[in-house]
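WARN  no MSA supplied for this record, continuing single-sequence
INFO  ligand: LBFN2T5F
INFO  echoing inputs
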Amino acid sequence: MTSTAQTFIKMHGAGNDFVVIDSRHHAGGVMTSALARAIGDRHRGVGFDQLAELRAADDADLTLDFWNADGSRAGACGNATRCVAAMVMGQTGAQKLTIRTARGLLLAENRDGQIWVNMGAPVLDWHSIPLAHACDTLHLPLPGDPAGVGMGNPHCVFFVADADTAPVAEHGAQVEHDPLFPEATNVEFASVVAPDHLRLRVWERGTGITLACGSGACATAIAAHLRGLTGRQVTITADGGALMVDWREDGVWLTGPVATVFTATLAAGFGA
Ligand SMILES: N[C@@H](CCC[C@H](N)C(=O)O)C(=O)O
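INFO  complex generated
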């Protein structure tokens, strides 16, 4: 792609880190799976948990597409959506944004300097998560009794006594590719701190261990509430910071810290 130099912004939301590429002036965008994988290489490229590409939209303020570090596509990324919304609101002064994603049309709002994103309604039917066969999604037929929740991407949530000692790397890598998940899955390990507070550690599909995951926080909050463990509003302490999830009638709202790290340019010819 980069026959000419390509500018990007490095951002993170609670330590979940992103390369943001603004392609609103390129019809169709510039990103490919191979290029995303090259940029995502933490040794030979830039490194990220997800790459977010902004594109123009006919029916929204912008379109957002997400890639994982292995070059696969992600249908949703809550933390990158929050980061990009904060960036665009900072550029334009807008207090609300509509964002077209593979998940559907999302709404972002600035509430007293805090950027909230409505991640939409949770998906709880087995076919749409998607799972390989019919089952009770609140109690998946896997050891450890996890719950399955879709947030535009699949999540498998384990409730454990102490998330800090959960075998995230070993178990996460294994569950990611369990045959129950035809499109693989993100894997969450959560413990209840209080009825309004969860501790969460995450293995992300296509990326591995990350310091936080916005859609994972939403999925975990939904599963915890449906199992009677928490209320509808929870603080989720991830390894990289605290996220807040509020499950309202109009969807699952997510907020948390956002940071811009640097702006830089890929060398011309990078990834070719
Ligand atoms: N970091 C994310 C979600 C990551 C997407 C994922 N790896 C997938 O393949 O679905 C977030 O903040 O939601």
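The pocket of LBFN2T5F is lined by residues 16, 49-50, 68, 74, 76-79, 153, 186, 204-207, 213-215 (CB under 6 Å).
INFO  checksum written, moving to next record
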